[in-house]
Amino acid sequence: MSEASRTLYTTTLIPHLSHNNTSPLRRTSVSPTIFKRNSVLRCSVSTLTKKIPWGCDTDSMENASALQRWLTESGLPEQRMGLEKVEVGERGLVSLKNIRNGEKLLFVPPSLVISPDSEWSNPEAGEVLKRNSVPDWPLLATYLISEASCMKSSRWSNYISALPRQPYSLLYWTRAELDTYLVASQIRERAIERINGVTGTYNDLRSRIFSKYPNLFPEEVFNMETFKWSFGILFSRLVRLPSLNERVALVPWADMLNHSCEVETFLDYDKSSQAVVFTTDRPYQPGEQVFISYGKKSNGELLLSYGFVPKEGTNPSDSADLSVSLNKSDVCYKEKLEVLRKHGLSASERFPIQITGWPVELMAYAYLVVSPPTMARQFEEMAVAASNNTSNKDLIYPEIEKEALQFMLDNCESSILKYTKFLQGSGSIDLDVTSPSQINRKLFLKQLAVDLCTSEQRILFRTQYILRRRLRDMKSGELRGLSIFNGFFRFFE
Ligand SMILES: C[S@@+](CC[C@H](N)C(=O)[O-])C[C@H]1O[C@@H](n2cnc3c(N)ncnc32)[C@H](O)[C@@H]1O
């Protein structure tokens, strides 16, 4: 949600644990030091699994009010905002008084923040994860499940009860839904990568840790479904706090704030007030919903992590990924792939295009794809520029500029065609449902996909227009040059 969280979400999305072990659960003997007396029975007992409150309906105000009461009793100072049903984001924080521009709000004390150092209601489980050096994200995902399973005996029970039972992120879309609704958008690939990342992380934890301590981590509680839930919560609520060395944290109350593309204010830890705050960048009148920014994210990235798409044309950070590939029939295919790999790239790459233009990395990749064998000595510098690892970014090769622009135009046009096909056919998508709730879900997902594809296609149309105009200008420049040359030729004749 904070500006700093952007890098986390947009790069290596899931912390890396090795993803290669997908073998079925092995039940090994329990470590004697861990399996002490009734160590776990306090919390994660399988018969209670069904009673565990994995959050509530996304618009439940009952649990939200209980959360607010508990936070106040636990040290949250008096607030200038209240938690209410809102038009944007279902539940959100609404101004109770006049709020000035530049005012600090929230003041959530560290004791009400969940971080990788938070105490576990079941300390043995926490110790096992820490002994195994589990990184922050899977650690927090396991922590949330563990605390949820402790129900009322967890100090976070009011917080967990107010979390959405099914976060809106793309983690909850089935493969068939992704294939049907996001067929045109590159976000589909990113969603699949993310789902695979979560699955791999869970499988790794299961084989390395959970299966060795089944009493601490019973599969009835710590399974793929509950991990999908906890990762969904992390993707849509976790923040990085720049003033605390980018520490990741869940900040109850602050995470009830919804996102607006029109504000540029982020959550952070404020050393002077020793609390998590944000500073408004506009005034609010009583009754108005107060917003923060979840970071400079494209509509696709907002859909991926948070499950919503801003209104068309309202997101200045919006972009559409263009996918480009080396040509397999290129005589230099092997050499080009080698230099790309050397600089961390592959035979197919995605580059984000904005309404204002394309990145220099894409142009460098295009140069490499179209460059002839005679330019082999420049392959390396093109790959370096494409990989974003150089200060000398603005490469220009006038002799192949036209081919590079044409290559980008061809890719852009074939991508536009996919969007057009999806958008034209979206009215006739077979919803194939058997219940009213299913039809609601399908219509909801379809609307999100149509909104996303419309905004991405708009960016590609603009890119197509600019590319066509440049190519036309280059051609007319060439023609002008040619006619001047012909004029000289006649003169000398
Ligand atoms: C950090 S939570 C914000 C609180 C949330 N509304 C709640 O009731 O729990 C993020 C979630 O809020 C919703 N949300 C935030 N900003 C939104 C927006 N501009 N439009 C639609 N939904 C939004 C999305 O469901 C997102 O996954």
Question: How does this model look, in words?
Answer:
β4 and β5 form a beta hairpin. It contains 14 helices and 11 strands. The protein folds into 2 domains: 288 residues, set domain protein methyltransferase, domain 1 (Alpha-Beta Complex), CATH 3.90.1410; 162 residues, Rubisco LSMT, substrate-binding domain (set domain protein methyltransferase, domain 2, Alpha-Beta Complex). The protein has a 3-stranded antiparallel beta sheet with strand order 3-8-7, with no helix packed on it. It is mainly alpha-helical and 493 residues long. 42% of the residues lie in helices and 9% in strands. The structure holds S-adenosylmethionine. S-adenosylmethionine binds next to β2, α8 and β6.
Main beta sheet? 3 strands, antiparallel
Question: What is the count of DSSP helices, taking H or I runs of 4+ residues?
Answer: 14
Cα radius of gyration in angstroms = 26 Å
Compounds present?
Answer: S-adenosylmethionine
Domain SET: 79-295
Pfam families: Rubis-subs-bind, SET
GO cellular component, one term: chloroplast
Binding site for S-adenosyl-L-methionine: 237, 258-259
